[in-house]
Each structure stands twice: as C-alpha cells, then as structure tokens.
Write a structure and sequence with these properties.
- This protein is mostly helical.
- It contains 9 helices and no strands.
- The protein is globular.
C-alpha cells in the first residue's frame, strides 16, 4: 500500500482494531445496554467502511456488504440469536458469491480435501454438539452455510493464509459458541476464545480481500 493510501485508509483499520480489541475487555459489563451493543458492532463496521472506500469494483462492494452484515449480526445477536444468525447467514451467502467469482485457477488434491472437510465437518460437529437441544437443526443448517463460506474462501484466489485462515477462525469461533450453548465447554473457556477468533478472522478476511483487489497481495500459491 502506498503512503498516501495508508494515510487515507489506515484510520479505519486503526479504529476497527481499537473498537474490536477494547470490546473484549468490556463485553461482560452488566450495565452495558445499547452502547455496549453498538461498541460490539463497531469493530467490523469500521472494516465495512474500510472495504467500501478501499475496495474495487463489484468485489469491493461485496466484501463491504459481508462486513456490514457481520456488524449488524454482532448487534442483533445481543437481542436474538435467530435474527443475528440470519444476518450473518446473509453475509456468508454474499461471501460465497464473492469467493466463487474469484475461484483459484488450480487447486491441489489436499486443498480440495481441506475445503471438503470444512463443508462437511462444520455442520456435522455443530449438530453433534447441539442435539437434542431446541433448534439444533437450525444450528446445523446455519453451520452448513458457514462451512460453505470457509470452503469457498479456501479455494478462492485470495491469500489462503489470510482470507482462508480468517474464514477458518470464523468457523471455530461459531463452533465454540455452540459448544457453550450446549454445555460441551464451560463459559470460563469459551469466553476467552470466541471474540478474539471471530474478530481476528473478520480482520484477516477484510484486509486480505481488499489488498488482493488492489493488486498488492495476490499470488497463485498464497
């Protein structure tokens, strides 16, 4: 990125990092209310602004929309898991469209197997953890969309160890949420992992996609 680009767009990334990291330390505030909900959504909302200004063409608009629905989902989850999950699902579907538009020309068998594992194992693990709780099928269906998002990210032309890894971190974060809700893992463990994995994943995805669209970071082996 040029110095001018950094000076123009670094503030959005810096604001995202400040909001996302600081939220981790205030998330358990019992009197947070609306301001805490907005604080939660701010980290990814700033990524959406960054993508909107820095991205290029249709793909730039798509990654901005992915981050926007992520930010809306962050806020809505504090009110309803169903509403929040639905907003995230829309964002994942947009992300799938983005990654399919940017398929990698050549993929190895190991890369295909990794993508297949993400596609199949993500909803399977979610189902095994949440059955027979209410809405376990909804959790499995949502996880199927998340798994498809991660699989297509892994097979896209975007850097695998930024965008692909970010998508995998998103998957793991969601599985930790389900493990907490199902009582598979105690909150004393999941509370330390869910937000850092999620926000770190979103940050890697947004910056990896945008910088690739700017022509700075694409390599066929990335």
């Amino acid at each position: 990125m040029s110095r001018r680009a950094l000076s123009e767009h670094r503030p959005w990334l810096l604001a995202s990092l400040i909001a996302g990291v600081s939220y981790f330390f205030v998330a358990d505030d019992p009197i947070g209310g609306v301001w805490l909900m907005l604080w939660k959504g701010a980290g990814v909302a700033f990524l959406a602004i960054y993508a909107a200004f820095r991205g290029r063409g249709t793909d730039g608009l798509l990654i901005a929309a992915v981050m926007l629905f992520g930010a809306l989902g962050d806020v809505a989850l504090e009110i309803s898991y169903v509403v929040g999950g639905s907003l995230f699902a829309v964002g994942h579907l947009i992300a799938i469209a983005l990654y399919l538009r940017n398929r990698r020309e050549r993929t190895s068998s190991s890369q295909l197997m990794a993508a297949l594992a993400l596609l199949i194992l993500t909803p399977l693990i979610a189902a095994l953890m949440t059955f027979p709780l209410d809405n376990w099928m909804l959790a499995a269906a949502y996880s199927g969309v998340v798994g498809a998002m991660a699989a297509t990210a892994w097979l896209s032309r975007f850097p695998r160890y930024r965008v692909g890894l970010g998508a995998v971190l998103f998957v793991v974060s969601d599985l930790f949420i389900f493990s907490r809700e199902a009582g598979v893992l105690p909150e004393s463990i999941t509370s330390w992992l869910i937000w850092p994995l999620y926000f770190g994943g979103q940050f890697l995805i947004a910056t990896g996609v945008v910088q690739t669209l700017r022509g700075k970071s694409f390599t066929q082996r990335g």
